[in-house]
Amino acid sequence: QEGATGERQSILFGQPCQCFRTLIRAPLFSAGPNLKEWLREQFCDHPLEHCDDTRLHDAAYVGDLQTLRNLLQEESYRSRINEKSVWCCGWLPCTPLRIAATAGHGNCVDFLIRKGAEVDLVDVKGQTALYVAVVNGHLESTEILLEAGADPNGSRHHRSTPVYHASRVGRDDILKALIRYGADVDVNHHLTPDTRPPFSRRLTSLVVCPLYISAAYHNLQCFRLLLQAGANPDFNCNGPVNTQEFYRGSPGCVMDAVLRHGCEAAFVSLLVEFGANLNLVKWESLGPEARGRRKMDPEALQVFKEARSIPRTLLSLCRVAVRRALGKYRLHLVPSLPLPDPIKKFLLYE
C-alpha cells in the first residue's frame, strides 16, 4: 500500500519492515535447495548452532508442562524463552508462548509467562499470542494472556484484531473477556500514532468493522456486546469515513448492511436503541430483495420503516446522549457512579 509520502509499504505489517524488504530484494536462487537454512540465516534471532535444539518449543506444542519445568531450570533455556525458532513443529519463526497459545495449553501459557515470556511479541505475520489464542478459540489461554497484560487489541502490525475475529465466529464469551480488559470495539485506522501528523486512512469499506462482520454472520449476541461497549452504530470506526469510495452497491452504513444481509428484526431494533442515524439508509436501496446474497427480512424492514417514521422517545434520546458524553472508554465506570441501580442498568442497556 502507499504511505502518505508515496513510499511503498507492506500490506501485511502496515508499515515498512526489514523482513519484507529482505524477501522482495533477495534473489530467489540464493536460498538454493536448503530453504530451511536460508530462513534461519535471514530471520533467526539466535546463533545458528542453537537452531536445532527445539525442545522448549516442542514441549510447548504438545503441552508437556513437566518438560518445560525441567528445561527452564537451566539458565541456558531461561535466556531463550523468547526465542523464535524457525520451522519448529513445521511453523515459521515463533516463540514457545505463541506455540502454546495456538495449541490452547493454558497451563503452559501461564507457566511460560511466569518464567518471563513476553506476552506481546509478534510472529512473522504480526500476530501476538493473544490473537492466535482467540483465532483458535481458546478462552482459557485468552484470559490468562489478558490477565498477564497482553494488549487486547493485538498488534498494529497485523490487519485483523482479536475483537474482529471473535465477532466473526460468534465467540461472545471470548469477546466479553476482550471487552472486559479494555479492547477497542471500533476500527482504528491510525496505524502510526507516534508520528505527527498521524498516518491515517479513511474508512472505505464496512467489511473491516467488527460490528458489520458480526451482523454479516448473524451473531446477535456479539452484535449486542459491541454496541453495549460503545461501538459506533453507523460506521464502527474511530477515524474519518469516506462513503464516496465505498464499492458500488455495497452497504452505506451498518443499518444498511443489517437489512441487506437479511438479519432478523432484533439487529435493527438494537441499532435503533443505540442511536443509529436512520437517514443514512437510502430508501431506493430497500426493494423487495436486497442486492446482496440474502433477501431482506420483512419484519426487520418493517421495524426499520416504523422507527424512521416515528420520532424516538425523549428517554431513548437522553440515554444515547449521556452515553456519548461519557465516551466508550468510560462506560465501564458507570457502575461506580452515585446513581440508583435502575439508572445504571438503563445506561448500560442491561
Automatic annotation (TrEMBL):
Pfam families hit by this protein: Ank, Ank_2, Ank_3, SOCS_box
Return the protein name: Ankyrin repeat and SOCS box protein 1
Pathways involved: Protein modification; protein ubiquitination
Recorded source organism is Mus spicilegus
UniProt GO molecular function? ubiquitin protein ligase activity
Give the UniProt keywords, A-Z: ANK repeat, Developmental protein, Repeat, Ubl conjugation pathway
Q: Where do the ANK repeats start and stop?
A: 95-124, 125-157, 158-190
On whether Repeat is a keyword of this UniProt record, the answer is yes
Q: According to its UniProt record, which protein family does this protein belong to?
A: Belongs to the ankyrin SOCS box (ASB) family.
GO CC terms: ubiquitin ligase complex
> Where is the SOCS box domain positioned along the sequence?
308-350
One GO process term, biological-process aspect: intracellular signal transduction
